[in-house]
Amino acid sequence: MDTLLRNLSTSLSPRRIASPHAWVEHIPFAFYLMEKLQPARFIELGVHTGNSYLAFCQGVDVFHLNTKCTGVDTFKGDDHASHYSENILNELSAYHDPLYGHFSNLMQCTFDEAWTETPDASVDLLHIDGYHTLDAVEHDFSKWLPKMNSSGVILLHDINVWRDKFGVWRLWQDIKDRFPSLEFSFSHGLGIVAVGETIPTALTPLFDEPDMAERTFYLLGSRIRYEHLACRAKTERETSVQSRLYIDRGAEFSERDSMTASFDPNTKQIQFDLRSYPDAKRIRFDPFHDAAVITLTEVTCENEDGKIFPLTPSGHNALYHDETIFDFAARNPRFIFTLPDDQNIRSITITFDFLHTGVAALSYILGKLHRELSTAHREAGQREAQLLSQIERLKIETNQLHQNKTELESLPGIRIIQWLKRLTETCTDFRKKG
């Protein structure tokens, strides 16, 4: 496990990413599997826009493998992936065919139709990401199981999705203890099961250290996801962001007493002129119109004599904050500041910057929430295991004590002492009655 980060696969970046992004954080794991497993036959059930499938194909190309790849999908969608036009397949084929067409085939058909063309015991790696109801995924898993070879590996996506009749999580609960398995809880969850007679050598260190494996691939996947989303947010950040300042003159905040100013991306500052509001009591600063992760470096106000006063937030609606970093999941981030008493404030200067905005900010915040939930779940499981272990030890000790008591009571000396004790009690009762 300590050599994982030295693998070439962990340094690769995907050549293409398309919406939706639910699989993006697993792309480094796809590269790793291709580099280490080097499967002769790879099949994906449920391709959609191709984020996962193209990652596997890129691995084949980069590592010069002799892998035959097949991506199976009707390319019409379903109730979970939504229904879409053939433009999805046309756009995917236009990218896929020139790069990977010599070893990969996109089959527009049902999974069962592809199954009839696949020999038994011929598949090394299978990725199931189709219709996600329990009946559908159970059918796919059981039907394709005989197609796996003696060291076959199956991937199941969306094992951590419980909404809209998703049932992969229920199948995962049923099978994860039947086979050697590993699960990643991030990015909708990915289950990895070694369904053959032998476990591939590449998976052994991951199975031996599952927490470290999950943490490593989460960090690698997050880098790819945030780099991609940052490209989308970069333009928005670098354009002129209009921030708004609301002034409380003793009657709460209102649109009437507000103003806008432009954020300067070079100085990372914004300034507001308050000379028209000598009776200002508080201010509310709304830096952006969408979710954002913001660093608030410094806030100062200047009075009419040129004296500078530092300000710290007296309130905000950030979901998280750590010193100067504030995570706003709401679409109206805001800070509230109380102005110093008996001072005619003429200007406010706010130094801040955007780390993430919009979708990238929500992804960052959701990732943080997910890590906290995963940590809490893991710690709860560890505490439960410790308590169960303690209970078992107490049971053993209790049984041992009972056994020792029985052995002691059977000794002749103990039996004589018990007889003398009963005789003494009888004599005592006789004297009391006499």
Instruction: Give, in order, the helices and strands.
Output: HEHEEEHEHEHEHEEHHEEEEEEEEEEEHH
Could you list the spans in which at least 5 consecutive residues all have pLDDT below 50? none
Q: Total number of β-strand segments?
A: 20
Number of helices: 10
Q: Average the pLDDT over all residues and give the rounded result.
A: 85
- Beta-strand proportion: 15-25%
Helical coverage, percent range: 25-40%
Q: Which word captures the global form?
A: flat
- The radius of gyration over CA amounts to 32 Å
Assign the structural class, choosing from mainly alpha, mainly beta, alpha/beta, alpha+beta, or little secondary structure. alpha+beta
Determine the N-to-C terminus distance.
Answer: 85 Å
Main beta-sheet strand count, sense and barrel state: 7 strands, mixed
How are the strands of the largest sheet arranged?
5-2-1-6-7-9-8
Tell me about this structure.
- This protein has 434 residues and is an alpha+beta fold.
- The chain is built from ten helices and 20 strands.
- A seven-stranded mixed β-sheet has the order 5-2-1-6-7-9-8, with helices on both faces. Strands 12, 14, 15, 17, 18 and 20 form a six-stranded antiparallel β-sheet that branches. Strands 11-10-13-19-16 form a five-stranded antiparallel β-sheet, with no helix packed on it.
- Helix 8 runs antiparallel to helix 9.
- The chain is flat, with a radius of gyration of 32 Å.
- The relative contact order is 0.08.
- The model has no long low-confidence stretch (mean pLDDT 85).
